TrEMBL record:
It comes from the Bacteria. It holds the Pfam family Hemerythrin. PANTHER family: HHE DOMAIN PROTEIN (AFU_ORTHOLOGUE AFUA_4G00730). InterPro entries: Hemerythrin-like. This is Hemerythrin domain-containing protein. Residues 1-27 are annotated as: Disordered. Residues 30-143 form the Hemerythrin-like domain.
């Protein structure tokens, strides 16, 4: 939906003086639209995936601040001055804001190298451009006809305060109208800025982020693998394996005094090895080894590490000497671990370059 107010000049073709001065809501909106448009053009002309992702981050925050200021200041003023006739257009633009919020949330879960990332970005751009046209061609010119220059500047000042103090991240479940958005604004703004600060200190592709994400991903993979093992053991009657404990005993020289201590060592090796290997998978994600190919490679790596430790310590035997059913079960559990670990790592770590 793109509309034009009959007989009224678009804000896009007006001079700053015609708009009511630099501080007028018309001028502030127009300048912000120009910034958003320049960011969208920069995205179109930037070949680097990493730089494109950064442009999207910058544009997302700018667009969200812009939309929040409209919903808390501009649209209420528009409805106040023009009454019921203003509600249809402002409601339509609020719907566009909701769509942008939802697409920005979707973008957070996508790898910038994924073709779906670019498609979603372009859909988001289309909505933002339509939003700007509706405002500059219809909403703002209509407001200009019924509000004085002083009133337009007062709305502009309030709009700017709201824009500067708004949340910085998408929140599609928050109301698009007062008082719901105003009540949510303060805690969300504080929360968003804390997250922004943390991300600035520990960027998504930094070594510290890779380490933390890898440990978390590895622990998640172990947890799901362990659950799968328990289900499989309940169905097959297979007893617990104490190979991890025996490997750790050989590596450390520890000698458990009883079965309880051996259980502790078994869990320590089982969880410790899987959690630490998650850091390797996070490093793979950082370098672009992701998705299905990453899962296959990481499954092979996990099996290779297991066999190196078990055979190097003399605890285990080469896989080709195992009964076929035991080999299938072991590979299946390690594949589950690799897929879960990879899924978490891919989501938490951005690709470098």
């Amino acid at each position: 939906m793109s509309v034009r107010a009959p007989g009224l000049p678009s804000v896009a073709v007006q001079s700053e003086r015609q708009r009511g001065g630099r501080g007028s809501i018309l001028s502030r909106q127009s300048r912000d639209h120009a910034v958003l448009q320049s960011l969208m053009l920069a995205y179109e002309h930037t070949p680097s995936v990493r730089k494109r992702a950064k442009i999207v981050d910058t544009l997302a925050e700018r667009a969200l601040r812009h939309a929040f200021a409209e919903e808390t200041v501009l649209f209420p003023a528009y409805r106040k001055y023009l009454g019921e006739q203003a509600d249809e257009l402002s409601a339509h633009i609020e719907g566009e804001h909701q769509a942008v919020n939802e697409m920005l949330v979707e973008l957070q879960s996508l790898d910038p190298h994924d073709p779906e990332f670019d498609r979603t970005v372009r859909k988001t751009f289309a909505v933002i451009r339509d939003d700007a046209r509706n405002e500059e061609d219809a909403l703002l010119p209509q407001l200009q006809q019924v509000a004085t220059g002083r009133q337009l500047r007062a709305i502009g000042r309030a709009w700017e305060v709201s824009r500067r103090t708004s949340p910085t991240r998408p929140h599609p479940k928050v109301s698009r109208r007062p008082p719901g958005n105003l009540l949510a604004a303060l805690p969300l703004a504080v929360s968003d800025r804390a997250k922004d600060a943390a991300q600035h200190v520990v960027p998504p592709a930094s070594g510290v982020r890779v380490l933390g994400a890898g440990l978390l991903a590895g622990a998640a993979g172990v947890a799901v693998m362990t659950l799968g093992e328990k289900v499989e053991q309940a169905l097959t009657g297979r007893p617990n394996s104490y190979v991890p404990s025996r490997v750790l005993e050989r590596l450390t020289g520890l000698h458990p005094a009883d079965e309880a201590e051996r259980d502790v060592l078994n869990l320590a090796m089982h969880w410790g090895q899987g959690t630490l290997l998650g850091v390797v998978r996070a490093a793979m994600a950082r370098r672009g080894v992701r998705g299905a190919s990453g899962a296959v490679a990481f499954t092979g790596l996990r099996l290779a590490v297991d066999q190196t430790l078990e055979n190097g310590t003399g605890v285990g035997a080469p896989p080709w000497t195992w009964p076929r059913d035991e080999l299938v079960i072991d590979v299946a559990h390690k594949a589950v671990y690799a897929v879960v670990t990879g899924s978490v790592a891919d989501r938490l770590v951005r690709t470098r370059g």
